[in-house]
From TrEMBL:
Species in which this protein is naturally found: Candidatus Marsarchaeota G2 archaeon OSP_D
Key word Oxidoreductase present: yes
Superkingdom of origin organism: Archaea
PROSITE patterns hit by this protein: ACYL_COA_DH_2
Protein family (similarity comment): Belongs to the acyl-CoA dehydrogenase family.
The protein's name: DNA alkylation response protein
SUPFAM superfamilies cross-referenced by the UniProt entry: Acyl-CoA dehydrogenase C-terminal domain-like, Acyl-CoA dehydrogenase NM domain-like
InterPro entries: Acyl-CoA_dehydrogenase-like, Acyl-CoA_DH_CS, Acyl-CoA_Oxase/DH_mid-dom, AcylCo_DH-like_C, AcylCo_DH/oxidase_C, AcylCoA_DH/oxidase_NM_dom_sf, AidB_N
GO molecular function, one term: acyl-CoA dehydrogenase activity
Acyl-CoA dehydrogenase/oxidase C-terminal domain segment(s): 280-438
Domain Acyl-CoA oxidase/dehydrogenase middle positions: 169-268
Reported cofactor(s): FAD
Length: 563
């Protein structure tokens, strides 16, 4: 059959998306992460070929379909995926162990690095909600629940008779509100030892028709109103007598995220397993959202990276006015801006992941370090979502007219980017939660302490002035926040988040440049600082500096000193 014709329409297809991504490898170096041992190169090959092509095919040709009735008139409510998508998912879960690593060895970097490399938000969502489900069962399930659900959810296989793999799901949003979890109306009733759920308001239910078990928020009858009255349940697809335990009303028609089916779910006396204590359900739910928000952040980075790759390879080939696009100064400027934006927000996000990694076992009441990880998570989620929208827009623009055609991959990346500020808590909600983490939990105190600590590693003068400038901006932003009334702080919350995010991105990039002894990363930090903090025209760099930044797939022959 030969090579897929997809290679004629995509520049990024068929390449190893890990090996070519030298800036990402630098971030892993900075974290001291053993990526060779983690098998990321082999995953990079798989995502650059099979996952890349299948995700685009699913979007354009083969969207998931809900099968409601079986041949013999039985209600089944299962989703039919394109067989190629099923193959890709089985390999990601089974062979590459994407969901398994945090639970088998406590390695969250592997999980988040994998989601970044996958990039496609539909496939990433299926794996994310499965990890989130496993995470809540791991933390709050009783022994029997863990034994039954953790092996298939994490892809370790099941005991005899059970499913080998199982997808999870997280159904919190209801028709009357997603941001306002306290408005949930699905009700839980306990009869003897059994909890049962009732309600038809779960309105955005990803993995409906795929999930073998779902995390569901519901209010036990008689519990207090608002978010504090919400408990967290695990609802298996089949009840204890083997009957379907809930119904899928329909699948949504979406402008992106095609690979994941998103539906509406109804509970009619559905058997449910309570996780932990009912009064703490809202805390458990928010803990799980740390996983999905960080997934969203690396997913947004992955989307931007794929769009960058398409634009970069196209700019090398396409010629106008007698030279290739990549030789035109203004195209170089666009690519420099895109790359600096990706790398700054990537440094920020992996710093958040490092803090999540050391606090993921925290339970209420939480440590200061946990609140700090949460603060960085809110900031990373918004910063990467804004970045992905901007970078994918520029990537489309650099393709000229064909960038607007649905026939080529780059337009999809822009559509996909636009989900990232909405789900897992919209950007406004992240900004408001950031205010809460600062005002009520003092999460900015460990942040400033860490920034002051990191300053000791900055050796060169150029780096020191950049670092001092961004540290000062963080301090000033936090000081001015402390003087605002509650309403004024809410009004400015997104602007404050953005200023903090930009200053942290520059500080972490500068620190990384010093730790890795990399002139290239220092140049990127300068570009980021000029464009997003000073908001001045980008400096005209030498041809060598420009190529060092934008040619992300070029090995620098040991220029980056690995620790
Ligand atoms: C493709 C897709 C898949 C999804 N999958 C799932 C899933 O599997 N499980 C799940 O639980 N949910 C899922 N969602 C739902 C998603 O998480 C919600 O749509 C999102 O949290 C926003 O909730 P909402 O749509 O009810 O908007 P609303 O809560 O009505 O908010 C509307 C707008 O108002 C803003 N807003 C709300 N309150 C405030 C405030 N106090 N101050 C300032 N601004 C405010 C919000 O930022 C938003 O911009 C999915 C959504 C999509 C699009």
């Amino acid at each position: 059959m030969g090579e897929s014709p997809y290679r004629f329409i995509s520049g990024a297809y068929g390449k190893n998306h890990f090996e070519l991504d030298k800036p990402f490898i630098s971030v892993l170096d900075y974290l001291n992460y053993d990526y060779a041992g983690a098998g990321l190169s082999s995953l990079g090959e798989f995502v650059g070929r099979d996952v890349y092509e299948v995700a685009d095919y699913v979007d354009k040709v083969a969207r998931p379909k809900l099968i409601v009735w079986s041949l013999d008139g039985e209600r089944v409510d299962r989703v039919w995926l394109d067989p190629a998508e099923r193959m890709v998912l089985e390999r990601l879960v089974g062979h590459y162990g994407v969901v398994r690593s945090p639970f088998a060895s406590g390695d969250w970097v592997h999980y988040f690095a994998s989601i970044y490399l996958i990039g496609d938000p539909g496939i990433a969502c299926i794996l994310t909600v499965t990890s989130q489900t496993a995470y809540s069962v791991y933390k709050y399930g009783d022994e029997a629940t863990k034994k039954r659900f953790l092996p298939p959810l994490t892809g370790e296989g099941a005991q005899a008779g059970g499913d080998r793999y199982m997808f999870g799901a997280t159904w919190f949003t209801e028709v009357q509100g997603g941001s306002d979890l306290g408005a949930n109306t699905v009700e839980a009733l306990r009869t003897g030892d059994t909890w049962r759920l009732n309600g038809n308001t779960k309105y955005f239910s990803s993995d409906a028709g795929l999930a073998g078990a779902a995390l569901v928020t519901a209010r036990p009858r008689g519990a207090e109103p608002g978010a504090k009255g919400i408990a967290l349940f695990l609802v298996p697809e089949f009840d204890s007598e083997g009957r379907r335990n809930f119904s899928v009303r329909r699948l949504k028609e979406k402008s992106g995220t095609a690979a994941v089916p998103t539906g509406e779910v109804e509970f009619h006396g559905s058997e449910a397993i309570l996780l932990g204590e009912p009064e703490k359900g809202v805390y458990y739910t928010l803990e799980g959202l740390m996983v999905s928000r960080l997934s969203n952040a690396v997913g947004a980075l992955g989307i931007a990276r794929k769009a960058y790759l398409e634009a970069y390879y196209y700019a090398k080939k396409r010629r106008t006015f007698g030279r290739s696009l990549i030789e035109h100064p203004l195209v170089q400027r666009d690519l420099l801006e895109m790359e600096a934006y990706i790398e700054g927000t990537m440094a920020l996000t992996f710093s958040a992941i490092r803090h999540f990694q050391s606090t993921y076992k925290d339970t209420p009441p939480y440590t200061d370090e946990y609140h700090y990880a949460r603060l960085l998570t809110h900031i990373s989620k918004n910063m990467t979502a804004d970045m992905a929208a901007h970078v994918t827009k520029l990537a489309m623009e650099l393709h000229g007219g064909i960038g607007f055609l649905a026939e080529f991959p780059v337009e999809r990346w822009h559509r996909e980017a636009l989900i990232t500020p909405i789900w897992e808590g919209s950007s406004n909600i992240q900004a408001l939660d950031m205010l809460e983490a600062i005002a009520k939990k003092g999460a900015h105190i460990p942040l400033l302490r860490e920034l002051e600590d990191m300053a000791k590693d900055i050796r060169d003068n150029a780096g020191r002035s950049l670092y001092t400038d961004s540290l000062e901006l963080s301090r000033k932003t936090l000081d001015s926040l402390g003087r605002l009334s509650v309403d004024d702080a809410q009004f400015q919350a997104k602007d404050i988040l953005e200023r903090l995010g930009h200053s942290l991105a520059v500080a972490i990039l500068t620190h990384m440049a010093n730790i890795l002894n990399s002139r290239r990363i220092l140049t990127v930090a300068h570009l980021y600082h000029t464009r997003f903090i000073r908001r001045e025209p980008l400096p005209r760099l030498s041809a060598k500096e420009i190529s060092e930044v934008i040619e992300i797939d070029r090995d620098r022959g040991g220029q980056i000193m690995r620790r």
